[in-house]
Specification:
A five-stranded parallel β-sheet has the order 2-3-1-4-5. It has one domain: 3-Layer(aba) Sandwich (Rossmann fold), CATH 3.40.50. It is of the alpha/beta class. The chain has eight helices and five strands. Bound molecules: shikimate-3-phosphate (S3P).
C-alpha cells in the first residue's frame, strides 16, 4: 500500500477534525470524518441518531464504516471519539494505517466542544459536562493509551499537524 491511511482517534474536542483537515491538505490525501459520513448516510445529525435510533445503531454504523474505510488508502480519517476503542474497529481500520491519538485537558475539551461547529455531543448533554468528560476519559484512558499519543493542549492546530508529520513512519 503506497499511501496508508492516517487515522486520528482521541476524545471529543481533541482536535481530530481540525487537525485532520490540515493534515489531509498537506499530504494531498482525502479527508474523511466518520461522524459526518454517518450523518450524510442517515440524513440526520449524530444528536438525532442517538435520540431517534439509539446509541447502539450509531455504533453499528461506525463498525460498518470502519470496515469500509480500512480497505482504502490515501485518506486522513477523523474518527468519532469511541470508534477506535472497539478492538474490532481498531483492527479493521487501523491495521493498514498509522493511528494517532490526540489528547487534551478536560477544561480545554469543554471549551472546544462548546464552540465547535460540529453540533452537540449527545454524551455531554448533561448538567455537569466537565464532570462527565473527566469520568469518560478515566473510563477510556486504557483504550486510548494503546495508540501513539499526540498532546494538543495549548497548541495551535498547525503545530499539532507538524507533530504528527514528525512521527509519520515511512512504511
Ligand atoms: C462520541 C464522539 C463523537 C460522536 C458521538 C460519540 C464518543 O465524535 O461520535 O457523539 O462516544 O466519544 P467526536 O469525537 O468527533 O466528537
Amino acid at each position: 500500500m503506497s499511501r496508508p491511511n492516517i487515522i486520528l482517534t482521541g476524545f471529543m474536542g481533541s482536535g481530530k477534525t481540525t487537525v485532520g483537515k490540515l493534515l489531509a491538505r498537506q499530504l494531498n490525501y482525502l479527508f474523511v470524518d466518520t461522524d459526518h459520513l454517518i450523518e450524510q448516510r442517515c440524513g440526520m445529525s449524530v444528536q438525532e441518531i442517538f435520540k431517534n435510533k439509539g446509541e447502539a445503531t450509531f455504533r453499528q454504523m461506525e463498525a460498518e464504516i470502519a470496515r469500509e474505510l480500512g480497505a482504502g488508502e490515501g485518506m486522513v480519517i477523523a474518527t468519532g471519539g469511541r470508534l477506535m476503542l472497539d478492538p474490532l474497529n481498531a483492527q479493521v481500520l487501523g491495521a493498514q494505517g498509522s493511528v494517532y491519538c490526540l489528547a487534551a485537558q478536560p477544561d480545554e475539551i469543554l471549551q472546544r466542544v462548546a464552540r465547535s461547529a460540529q453540533g452537540q455531543r449527545p454524551l455531554l448533554d448533561t448538567s455537569n459536562p466537565l464532570e462527565r468528560i473527566v469520568d469518560l476519559i478515566r473510563e477510556r484512558e486504557e483504550g486510548y493509551a494503546r495508540f501513539t499519543q499526540i498532546s494538543t493542549s495549548g497548541k495551535k492546530p498547525q503545530q499539532v499537524m507538524q507533530d504528527i508529520l514528525a512521527q509519520l513512519q515511512p512504511r
